[in-house]
Design brief:
Number of helices: 8
Strand content: 25-35%
Largest sheet: 6 strands, antiparallel
Number of strands: 10
Number of domains: 2
Shape: elongated
Strand order of the largest sheet: 1-2-6-5-4-3
Helix content: 25-40%
Structural class: alpha+beta
Distance between the termini: 19 Å
CATH topology of the largest domain: Protein Transport Mog1p, Chain A
């Protein structure tokens, strides 16, 4: 997954903070509708007996959609990353379902959804979540609807809560790679569901092939995963930004991946038979190389599952 690489934000001051969601660098906000004050029937149960069980949420309503232009992220992986972020901001999950558990066609069309092409819902692959946070005079409610097309994932977030001063936080959100370091459980889930994970806390000096000194939680988590799954193997793949020649960047990316492999073997005690290292230079960017921020995100090492069972 490229991170929830899904971190995925700085907001204007507000009377009550609205949730912020960190997305992959390829996420783009496609639509937003806002109502100063209103009510929203928040789904808290599946379609059953001709209706969806709902909770009446009142306050300022903001409904926003994003498109994530990455074809290999599953709806489960997207939901998992965003659920973790909501919990980290103090939300309690009220209801969660996948396509069939939600009620399929009936649930989808009984739920308010922003129109195509801004928000796309595949009737055979969508997931829904509703959550609530009570830390002020007015509860904060959130629902997430997640689906995908052949080449992209789509996220719709509906937020209901206290009126906010200044720009709406969702409108002001700046998408970056997730800055939450992967826990062993999160890394394991991402490797299992998506097949790869960005080791996004690694640090290489500019142009340097060797990993900097220090403790990196992503490596500790990956080592724990590999030791717990001795039948699994992982390829470490280095990536660079587009500055310099392709041949030079491929060589640099390979050296960086090998440096990570060496650290896993000699510091964390991982069996070298479970690891391989390679690099592809700047051929697989996750962000634009036209900006400093994008080039930083492109300089990375990913771990990919290579075993087939």
């Amino acid at each position: 997954m490229k991170r929830f690489a899904l971190a995925l934000l700085c907001l204007a001051p507000a009377a009550q903070a609205a949730p912020t969601l960190s997305m992959p660098p390829t996420a783009a906000r496609t639509a937003e509708e806002a109502t100063v004050m209103g009510s929203y029937a928040l789904p808290v149960g599946p379609w059953s007996d001709g209706a969806i069980k709902t909770l009446k949420a009142e306050g300022e309503i903001t409904q926003t959609a994003w498109r994530i232009r990455e074809g290999d992220i599953t709806t489960m992986a997207v939901l998992s990353a965003l659920r973790d972020q909501l919990r980290g901001e103090g939300f309690d999950i009220l209801f969660e379902c996948n396509t069939d558990e939600c009620g399929g066609f009936d649930f989808r069309f009984a739920t308010k959804v922003l129109p195509e092409p801004d928000m796309h819902v595949d009737l055979g692959d969508f997931r829904f979540l509703s959550a609530r946070r009570i830390d002020g005079p007015v509860p904060d409610y959130v629902s997430l609807l997640i689906s995908r097309s052949s080449d992209s994932s789509y996220v719709q977030m509906t937020r209901v809560g206290a009126a906010l001063s200044g720009p709406l936080p969702i409108a002001a959100a700046r998408f970056t790679a997730r800055d939450v370091q992967p826990s062993p459980g999160a890394l394991s889930d991402e490797l299992t569901t998506v097949g790869k994970v960005v080791l996004d806390d690694l640090d290489f000096a500019s142009g340097a092939p060797r990993l900097s000194d220090g403790q990196f939680s992503s490596l500790a988590a990956l080592a724990e995963y590999l030791k717990a799954n001795p039948d699994r193997s992982v390829a470490l793949v280095g990536h660079t930004d587009s500055e310099g020649s392709l041949a030079g960047n491929v060589a640099l990316s390979r050296k960086r991946a090998q440096s990570v492999l060496d650290r896993l073997v000699y510091i964390h005690g991982v069996d070298p038979a479970q690891l391989s290292a390679d690099g592809v230079g700047f051929l697989s960017p996750v962000a634009s190389n036209l900006t400093p921020e994008g080039r930083t995100q492109n300089r990375r090492v990913e771990a990919l599952i290579t075993s087939t069972r």
